[in-house]
Amino acid sequence: MKSRKHVHGKKWETIRDFLNEKVEKYNRPGFIENDPVSIPHSFRRKQDIEIAGLFAAVLAWGQRVTIINKCRQLMGMMDNDPYKFMLNHSEKDLRPLMDFKHRTFNATDTLYFVEALRWYYQHHTSLEDAFYVPGAETIELGLNQFQEIFFSLEDAPRRTRKHIPAPIRKSTCKRLAMYLRWMVRQDNCGVDFGVWKRITPAQLVCPCDLHVDRTARQLKLIRRKQTDWETALELTTHLRAFDAADPVKYDFALFGLGIEEGWSRHVKV
């Protein structure tokens, strides 16, 4: 591996080439096993992928092993058939969900997610409809729209809103941005699904989690002091200079450098 000092001194064209090499390294099926994206990869039906992916993204908080185990536990409570569960569950079927908890996501949140998804799929065939805004430059308006739709039921708990953030509240929306990457990006590498066709990869915003944020700052792709939605847009703007049609493919490179190669752990930012 080239030294960080060497990388920092390179021109942006060379940084692009460096990141392209890292995309090739990490955007591979081997990435799936130890990542929350493995949860939707357990399914084949579009709606199952959407639902499992949404839960996996929302619960992607903490150690990856724990996240994956918790998601598998939750899918098991839905008989590993989440779309059918959303549409056909009974009150009795909901009882096991009362014991589900991950970090601050508890039974109240789980039950509302199920209720909201049941209502949604009674009226729509795909979650893409909730995120799609015709003519939008980025997914920003779509994320705001999704939060509004998701919490449109009268009994929506106030506490659950924190699990579906929106740019209008300045959140980085890192987990939902990751979810949209899974659903929208399509290549021949087998990690992302590309099951949504109306939102394009060019509209995606890079998930700005801790590892991506710190690594991007090492490469001078982020200069904004705080980390919020504007930071995610700043990073994505720089990544578009490398690939305007698919800027978020560099999430693989930045995340891989951060967590696998230690950039986010050992470098002061």
Question: Explain this structure to me?
Answer:
The protein has 269 residues and is mostly helical. Helix 5 packs across helix 7 (107-121). It starts with a helix and ends with a helix. The longest helix has 15 residues, at 12-26. It has 14 helices and no strands. It has two domains: 1-30 and 206-269; 32-205.
Which descriptors would you attach to this protein?
14 helices; single chain; mainly alpha; 0% strand; 269 residues; 51% helix; disordered N terminus; 2 domains
Strand content: under 5%
Please tell me what the overall shape is: globular
Radius of gyration: 18 Å
In total, the number of strands is 0
Contiguous low-pLDDT stretches (5 residues minimum) are 1-10
In quaternary terms, these chains amount to single chain
Summarize, please.
This protein has 269 residues and is an all-alpha fold. The protein has helices spanning 4-8, 12-26, 46-58, 64-77, 82-88, 91-94, 107-121, 128-131, 140-150, 174-184, 210-218, 229-242, 250-260, 263-266. It has 14 helices and no strands.
Task: Map the helices and strands.
Layout: H1 4-8, H2 12-26, H3 46-58, H4 64-77, H5 82-88, H6 91-94, H7 107-121, H8 128-131, H9 140-150, H10 174-184, H11 210-218, H12 229-242, H13 250-260, H14 263-266
